[in-house]
Amino acid sequence: MTAANSAATRPDRTTARVRLRPTMTSDLEFVLSLEQDQENLAFITPWERTQHEAAIRFPDFRHFIIEGGQALNAVGFLILIGCRSQNQSLELKRMVVQAKGSGFGRAALRVAKKVAFDDLGAHRFWLDVKARNSRAKALYDSEGFVVEGELREALKVEGGFESLIVMSMLRPEFTGRRSLGLEVHA
């Protein structure tokens, strides 16, 4: 059984209970509603439904619904890209959580790291985050991601341009964090 199919088994005081399950076409209304939520729009570049449909089907992608809480209700989604990369470099393309501050984002990120390194054999797990998304950047910092650089004014937005911060974690860093009890075990 993979981490994607099981709960983060021992929730601690700082991490909510979550599991990742593959997104189905019937989940896309939920996904699209999260992307269009005003609270999220400032921090992501939403996709069209057809892009999500392709991500569900394309073998190089993993599109997951984040289920959380006691009832394991849908609380968000995340997308991994590069799952078949010959360079063993996977990207966390997007993670959106409905209830901010609930711990679901942190817990989902921990399970996503386990999936990337343990299940998909990544050497490098990376992401980009809008420079002004301080909440997400703080989460990635606290979860061991290292800033690699800034893509200055990489996104055209209403009224100008936005920069992206590129962050990553390497397998030895993940393994080191696991040995300290900071990562999800099998």
Question: Nutshell version of this structure?
Answer:
This protein is of the alpha+beta class.
Plain-language structure description:
This protein has 186 residues and is of the alpha+beta class. It has a single domain, classed as 3-Layer(aba) Sandwich (Aminopeptidase). It is 30% helix and 33% strand. The protein contains 6 helices and 7 strands; from the N terminus they run βαααβββαβαββα. The chain has helices at residues 28-36, 38-41, 49-57, 104-119, 134-142, 171-179; strands at 18-22, 61-68, 73-81, 89-97, 124-130, 146-157, 160-170. Strands 1-2-3-4-5-7-6 form a 7-stranded mixed sheet, with helices on both faces. The protein is globular, with a radius of gyration of 16 Å. Mean pLDDT is 92; it is low at 1-13.
Biggest sheet features: 7 strands, mixed
Shape: globular
Assigned CATH superfamily? Gcn5-related N-acetyltransferase (GNAT)
- Which structural class best describes the helix and strand composition? alpha+beta
CATH-defined architecture: 3-Layer(aba) Sandwich
Number of domains as seen in the coordinates: 1
Cα-to-Cα separation, first versus last residue: 9 Å
**What share of residues are in beta strands?**
25-35%
How would you state the average pLDDT, rounded? 92
Q: Which CATH class applies here?
A: Alpha Beta
The residue fraction in helices comes out at 25-40%
State the CATH topology: Aminopeptidase
Number of strands: 7
* Count of separate DSSP helical elements: 6
